[in-house]
Specification:
The protein contains five helices and no strands. By secondary structure, it is mainly alpha-helical.
Length: 85
């Protein structure tokens, strides 16, 4: 169920335009956000600066047409939960 909701949200209910628009690094950051990691923790784990992670977050938000960081986190959690099941 979570996977279906996340998929429909990510694609806007369409078959295309989903997570495939994200780069490999953006997808990696997206997954870590979905696991509840904070920006600083993600930066340390990936050996990147906090600023770089913030840039990735903003790029993800823009590419997925999300309005806020909260929407990004909610979608990332749903997607991560869907992958776990």
């Amino acid at each position: 169920m979570a996977r279906r909701i996340a998929s429909q949200t990510i694609t806007g209910g369409h078959a295309s335009g989903g997570l495939e628009v994200l780069s490999d690094r953006e997808l990696q950051v997206f997954e870590l956000i979905g696991r509840g990691q904070r920006t600083r923790t993600i930066a340390e784990q990936l050996h990147l600066s906090v600023h770089t992670i913030e840039s990735h977050r903003e790029n993800i938000r823009r590419k997925l047409s999300l309005r806020s960081g909260t929407e990004l986190m909610r979608l990332a959690v749903l997607w991560t939960l869907g992958r776990a099941s």
